[in-house]
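Fold this sequence, please.
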Amino acid sequence: MAVAEMLKTTGCDRRDHVLSHLPVKERGIEIAPYFNPITDKAIHDVWYVDCIDNDEIQRKAGENPGGVGKVVPRVDSVWIPGKRLLKCANNQKFSYAIASHVFEHVPNPIGWLLEIIECLEVGGTLALLIPNRQHSMDYYRRVTSFGELVGWYIEKPSIPTPGQIMDFLGDSFEDTGIVDYSKKMLSFADAKRHYTDKQAFEYATWTAKENHYLDVHCTVWTPESFVEVFERVANLGLLPVNLSSPEVGFPGSIPGEFLVFMQKTE
């Protein structure tokens, strides 16, 4: 089952748990809420932002089976590529930020996080909900390394790189929602794949030639690998944050996701 379908079936417990850790009486920002926002504009003082405009969001939602019957909220501003989020949000500062199943799609995670952290007041908190490799279509992929993360921070790719595309298309598998990850998994050679190696190579080559954005999971995480890598990033002085311990199996959570908080320190 796709993440969008699983999110569609989750109730209030998941939202309530995430929000219970955040200063929701203050002003917040949610990144790419799409049709499954954690916050509710009718209740919260929150600014919605996405990398595409409202017309494109509505078009995509209309083509997504997971969006059937869902009301897609309008975003307040577009995070334009090459323009800092702070500027796109009218230079506002926020007490908290939320991104649910967005982080793994970002080609330059450190750079992306820095722009969100810049929008937070000191002491503000960012909540991230992220797929766990051990229980997702990324099962056969290796986790993202510290070196890869810092390399992308230096290179600053604005769209997924050929390597990220090749890794996702070539090494992910088709998860129909019935896979029991608690049992012995098939070998990668026997797993059902969305793309052959040849198709993955053709897509990666074409996107590089056309400078085309292809939406993939650019990074791969387990709760443990996320903390290990980002503690090194923070110790390197690249991110002024404190990390919480990751949460798995929290109330209302979908299978194969974890929750982590970053608090801005300076």
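The radius of gyration is 18 Å. The chain has two domains: 3-135+217-264, 157-210.
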